[in-house]
């Protein structure tokens, strides 16, 4: 894909040229120009190479100044601009919420895996903050005993990251992060696409994520059994934990491709760290799109689910507090959570119980 990160990601030359052209057109400061002394400025290849090496290898600016023949302060300025440009140019496309077309693909794949209605898995990752200000160290230091910042992400079967919420202090746990996260805002606000599917003969109208045991028992989260008491529950736990690892794989791939988020963060402010993390996630999704082999057309489409386009925007003057609370209560329903999990237990047992 992008030639500037060499071994970290692929090297599709045409894609690299288009990528560089997009950035130069969006931000003319990356273009090759002449200064007031009629001397050529730094080339876009130099600027992109420096930024990509800082992301892919975690190289500090003073390590690259001789390699790309740029001053340290110029390197940092180019790096910040690069991250901002990637977010502004590609964020709406590569950090979008699933569209009805995306949902159909995710639902087909989940149904073939034994989890009808599942559209991904959710979890959190900690990024150590080496240069955390001393006055903030208490709220950013949690179970890792070092200042960290938390990334909450939702990833699907191909490790595409559909949701990223970054910036929560490391003292919080996954439940606290979920309470601050906008991951379910579209459901509560009534603007999410309408989805209907059946499991074990029962109809449901909300998709769900696979989650680990710390998460609450909500209708949109399906957890495993910590202590399975039957063969059916043991089989469900085995499959749920296997598919829940999609988000763990996404974290591992993200940190492998972009060494800057694998090691301790060296920036001094949360805004810069947020831009770095979001940039890495966008580039991660771009690589997946570039390298993915589409086989979705070959999948069986004769499945019990319905996806309807996103409804018209809600008129805030007509939408009442009662409607909002009703949607929130449906989202947080533990009764629906347990009913759905029990239906999934029976569904998986019917599929794999005799194997």
Give a brief outline of the structure:
By secondary structure, the chain is an alpha/beta fold. Helices cover 47% and strands 13% of the residues.
Structure description:
With 355 residues, this protein is of the alpha/beta class. Helices cover 47% and strands 13% of the residues. The protein is built from twelve helices and eight strands. The chain has helices spanning 13-26, 44-57, 61-68, 72-94, 100-112, 137-140, 174-180, 185-189, 231-257, 270-291, 321-331, 334-352; strands at residues 118-128, 148-155, 161-169, 194-199, 202-204, 208-210, 221-222, 305-308. The strands form two sheets. The chain has a five-stranded mixed sheet with strand order 3-2-1-6-7, sandwiched between helices. A three-stranded antiparallel sheet has the order 5-4-8. A hairpin with a 5-residue loop joins strand 2 (148-155) and strand 3. Mean pLDDT is 86; it is low at 1-11 and 296-303. This is Nuclease HARBI1. It comes from Linum trigynum. It holds the Pfam family Plant_tran. InterPro entries: Harbinger_derived_prot.
What layout of secondary structure does this protein have?
Layout (H helix, E strand, L loop, with lengths): L12 H14 L17 H14 L3 H8 L3 H23 L5 H13 L5 E11 L8 H4 L7 E8 L5 E9 L4 H7 L4 H5 L4 E6 L2 E3 L3 E3 L10 E2 L8 H27 L12 H22 L13 E4 L12 H11 L2 H19 L3
Parallel strand pairs: 1-6, 6-7
Antiparallel strand pairs: 1-2, 2-3, 4-5, 4-8
Fraction of residues in H or I helices: 40-55%
Distance between the termini: 41 Å
Biggest β-sheet strands, sense, barrel = 5 strands, mixed
Q: Which ranges are low-confidence, i.e. pLDDT below 50, for 5 or more consecutive residues?
A: 1-11, 296-303
- Count of DSSP helices? 12
